[in-house]
Amino acid sequence: MLGVNKMITLHTRANDAPKEHSPFTLEHSLVHNIHKMISFSSLSKATPIFNPWGHQKQKRVTPWNVVKLRDAVLNGSETHPGATLYADKSSTIVLNKEKGGKRDSRIHTARRLQSTRGVIMHHGKIHDQEFEGKIVYRHLKDGDVVLVNRQPTLHKPSIMAHVVRVLKGEKTVRMHYANCSTYNADFDGDEINVHFPQDEISRAEAYNIVNANNQYMKPTSGEPLRALIQDHIVSAALLTKKDTFLSCEQFNQLLYSSGVSMTGTGTFTCKPGQKISMSNSESEMFLFPPAIFKPEPLWTGKQVISALLRYITKGRPPFTVEKNAKLPSSFFKTQMREEKKHTTDTSREKEEHEDKLLIYRNDLVRGVIDKAQFGDYGMVHTVQEFYGSNTAGIFLSALSRLFTNFLQMHGFTCGVDDLLITEGKDSERIAELESCEIIGDKVHREFIGVMKDANIDPITMQLNVEKKIRSDGEAAAAHLDMQMISHLNDVTGKKAVLKNLLSEGILKPSGKNCISLMTTSGAKGGMINFQQISSYLGQQTLEGKRVPNMVSGKSLPCFPSWDCSPRAGGFITDRFLTALRPQEYYFHCMAGREGLVDTAVKTSRSGYLQRCLIKNLESLKVCYDHTVRDADGSIIQFHYGEDGVDVHQTSFVTKFEALSINEELVYSNCCRQLDRSSPYINKLPDALKGGAENFIRDFSSKQRNSSSMKHADFLQLMEHKYVSSLAQPGEPVGVLASQSVGEPATQMT
């Protein structure tokens, strides 16, 4: 499993290598029938798991790299790691077979590179100028940094830097799941661009600024952007539930599979001349005592997470976080429903707060890890805030490997029995949906002004409906649609049978129901998907209205003109589990087609909107006096956002409780105080100071028996946090603001 900031470049076969290279352009296709003329760039398919020949880097020959470059020249362009070109002041030599790049020729070229032995033996006689001008275009190799981009590039994180690892045998780019939401990518044929920086300045920026770990926060709102998804969420919930116990072998295997020892800085001991060394980095991991000693020692899944947290944050103060989970506390209880009715002792249930995750000083005390722990103010977000983005990246990588390994041990399969409803509840469901049929007659009577008790022939009512709609026009039809949708929602949304059907009526209890676990934990889908499979599809809408009628008054030719039944207007009582009738299937396809058309139309509109915004705001930036100015120095804002806080740092500025609990960590990260003599920013913003004082007042009233927090100490803590959260000079806030408007516009329907 890859780290979240890693990208694997996959090695192709020799007969797929490019036929010709020039020093300045690269002509090669990673995907057949797609050809690009781009310098040091490529296009490839993205898979969850590129061709090193397709990327070449100009490496100037120096005494420190001459040995490796000589080996690359000897390998030529057909063997990785090799080289495609050698260039000096007098000539350029192509190192492939078609251009005379045979073994003897490559040996002759390699000898033209100066050797390190000659430099050492004849120090002072060989000038450094002899190395200048000699350039080898080598293949991409492990450890190189590349810029990865998926179009459309709607915001800053759409281009990130990844570290390369080259494998053999495939042609696609393998990337980590945690970066999918950042690129808005999936693996159904998406193509991504890879660019290879050529000079050291670009590589330094890629490693330190554009690095994928540094793009954790969303520039729009400061919310977390990277997270584990799908199978990892399911595995996390299964591992951390209360009744998951592991043997000593399983506990150690899971910790080993997380791969954290590879990121640690353990001590190494070996004697001079020995090829074998001993590392004790693994021994530094804290070993928890078993949670159960008899009849055999067993460890809990929560202890695995606690051991991992202690290892990731060792050498730093521990952290504490409390966050509500998506899974309710009673989700994994699988007792029979009859037993629940006769249970009178609820004190123990109230004491259990498994729906609220608590990590106290790096120990997972209670709660289940689900989608919420990878979102706002969750476990990973807190690690990123207090320990930095690199630690958060290592933590995500370790969690992904850990959860993948546990899911392989545990197993997870969805079946038809997960979708079935009990016989009694299914009968009630059918009765409730059949009661919706009378709503159409009721609403149409109100529409034409006929009393409920009055007898009226169906044909006469249809004629009256037609007359009113044709006389009043579109407004009357829209009013009728709104009334029908409102009354149907009242029946289907407020009736307890349909509302609680998927929580109480499923045949397989929620703790063992895989579909329920996926939808409730946030791994994949939602209750609407579960409802459409097991219960009913509901009202199909087109542009916020019901399915429109044709000129004849029919929505489909099989219905009577001006039919009053909800089914004729697109209300589907069928479900996917027992199949749809042809009419319902057609209505459902109409709603799906509308989504495709909207996507195609809004892309061009939102793209032009974003371009206009960027061209108008591209010159705005933060200056050294904390003002926002344009290209000619005109002041747009005296303080960026009126408080000067960077958007990426806004999340925890107002989380007073989290800051007070982790005070030691805040001081270890933020060691700057407000400069009272500064003419620009010399005090806390009024809103932030007022919120902090209110928190101190409320906290002191709740903690009467214990030592209350000192007012001055907490305000000093907030000053440290505020100063460290200010926007840096040179921040292109105009472009960020434009992207923050344009990127969400593409998601609107």
TrEMBL record:
Catalysed reactions listed for this entry: RNA(n) + a ribonucleoside 5'-triphosphate = RNA(n+1) + diphosphate
Domain of life: Eukaryota
GO cellular component: RNA polymerase I complex
GO annotation terms (biological process): DNA-templated transcription
Gene3D superfamilies, per the entry: 1.10.132.30, 2.40.40.20, 6.10.250.2940, 6.20.50.80, RNA polymerase ii, RNA polymerase Rpb1, domain 3
Enzyme class, first EC level, given as a word: transferase
Enzyme Commission code: 2.7.7.6
Keyword Metal-binding: yes
GO molecular function, one term: DNA binding
Alphabetic keyword roster: DNA-directed RNA polymerase, Magnesium, Metal-binding, Nucleotidyltransferase, Nucleus, Transcription, Transferase, Zinc
SMART domains found in the cross-reference section: RPOLA_N
InterPro entries: DNA-dir_RNA_pol1_lsu_N (IPR015699), DNA-dir_RpoC_beta_prime (IPR045867), RNA_pol_asu (IPR000722), RNA_pol_N (IPR006592), RNA_pol_Rpb1_3 (IPR007066), RNA_pol_Rpb1_3_sf (IPR042102), RNA_pol_Rpb1_4 (IPR007083), RNA_pol_Rpb1_5 (IPR007081)
Pfam families: RNA_pol_Rpb1_2, RNA_pol_Rpb1_3, RNA_pol_Rpb1_4, RNA_pol_Rpb1_5
All residue ranges annotated as the RNA polymerase N-terminal domain in the record: 5-240
Record localization: Nucleus
Family: Belongs to the RNA polymerase beta' chain family.
PANTHER family: DNA-DIRECTED RNA POLYMERASE, DNA-DIRECTED RNA POLYMERASE I SUBUNIT RPA1
The protein's name: DNA-directed RNA polymerase
Source organism of this protein record: Trifolium pratense (Red clover)
